[in-house]
Amino acid sequence: MPLKAVGSDVDGTLTVRRGDLRVSVHAIRGIRLLESRGVKVILVSGNSLPVTAGLSVYLGSSGPVVAENGCVIMYRGQIYHVCSGRPPEGLLRKLQDLGLRPSWQNEFRYHDMAFFMPRGVDENSKAELLRAVSEIAEAHGLRVLWSGYAVHINPGNGKGEGLLRALELIGVSASEAAAIGDGENDLDMLSVVPISGCPGDAAPAVKVKVKFVARGRGGAGFLEFARWLLAKGERN
Amino acid sequence: MPLKAVGSDVDGTLTVRRGDLRVSVHAIRGIRLLESRGVKVILVSGNSLPVTAGLSVYLGSSGPVVAENGCVIMYRGQIYHVCSGRPPEGLLRKLQDLGLRPSWQNEFRYHDMAFFMPRGVDENSKAELLRAVSEIAEAHGLRVLWSGYAVHINPGNGKGEGLLRALELIGVSASEAAAIGDGENDLDMLSVVPISGCPGDAAPAVKVKVKFVARGRGGAGFLEFARWLLAKGERN
């Protein structure tokens, strides 16, 4: 099957490395390389729609944009809602009572709401907080996604469903697509396509699931993946 | 005076060239170079706040973010409104009747609304449309700004006031700042600081007003300006 589209996570995958949100110039090269070979890049992010769609314009990716961990898509100026509804205010207040800090992007979100961990908490306390958040959210029938940066309260089925809907919009089947991501919230997206990859500094749970583990971190890993995909296409 | 901050337009200034919205890797280098020398970069854009603030995170600029042509600022997660109100619905409908297409970002804007020209109009028709839009807007006491990409209906005083307010927020005086832009909507911002620059492919009206005209286009010109500013600082 010829490769027609690549779904890509943003934070930790197109950035300098996991934990650094500055975009990588290698990732930009990788995106433009794929696009110049006719492969559409689809950003699939936990960010809000305007942040993800704006980034897509500036990075030069031509595929649809999937935001809010799969909940909302933009393509050619049209907005498509994959999820419906949003977490109730009472739930969001409970999270703030636990010390979680709402993302400034929540004002621009439709469905998936994001929170940062309290400042200065250690890994143990983080894990404990995540468990507490999951309990609260699950009581409301909502999922909790941890991106490595933010806790997301998500009323949908995650990035995988978002990517499949985006592929549908451009008439590409999942068998003609690949995907790359670094976080646990990318796992379901990585499992809906036949070819998956991750940067060298991805979460361990991601590294064991993907076909291609890059040597470089973050966006350097994305560029490796892009080159590997194109070389693979030439061999076939 | 030591240089402490640089206000920068985005479209046409940090992008590959005027008319190409893909971000320039040279511009990214320029931003990170300034930041590594302790000079805060302040994005000053006609884009919506979430698009500009998201871009600032990914580009790695640490100054406040000025969006909507000076109407709204974000710094450390706080939003500051420089303008008040927004263009009335009747006015926006009139523009659509003229064939102008609303930007997808309008849904995420507070004050300044943006429209694209109808597809396939020539330069003469564009100028005529701009005159018609100005007449309608001025009847409502609103300004019209043309960025080279979009027509903005702006209820404020433009980018200059936005940049000054942003500098205030970080305790930097205008005399310690520089600015760079390529479009006519950047002129007032370029005039509120002692040192101004533009890329080599800036609008002619901008080229005649600034101190430094770069040779390179777009973001390559931004990198030249950044290096020139830092070398100038060392000479003084």
UniProtKB/TrEMBL annotation, chains A, B:
Q: Which UniProt keywords apply?
A: Carbohydrate metabolism, Hydrolase, Magnesium, Metal-binding
Q: Which GO molecular function terms does the record list?
A: magnesium ion binding; phosphoglycolate phosphatase activity
Q: Which Enzyme Commission number(s) are on file for it? A: 3.1.3.18
Q: Which reaction does it catalyse?
A: 2-phosphoglycolate + H2O = glycolate + phosphate
As cofactor, the record names: Mg(2+)
User: Would I find Hydrolase among this entry's keywords?
Assistant: yes
Residues annotated for substrate binding in this entry: 159
Q: Which domain of life is it from?
A: Archaea
Gene Ontology cellular-component terms listed: cytosol
**Pfam families referenced in this protein's UniProt entry, alphabetically:** Hydrolase_3
> Which family, according to UniProt?
Belongs to the archaeal SPP-like hydrolase family.
UniProt cross-references to NCBIfam families, sorted A to Z: HAD-SF-IIB, Pglycolate_arch
Q: What is the role of the protein in this entry?
A: Catalyzes the dephosphorylation of 2-phosphoglycolate.
The name under which this protein is listed is Phosphoglycolate phosphatase
Annotated source species? Acidilobus saccharovorans (strain DSM 16705 / JCM 18335 / VKM B-2471 / 345-15)
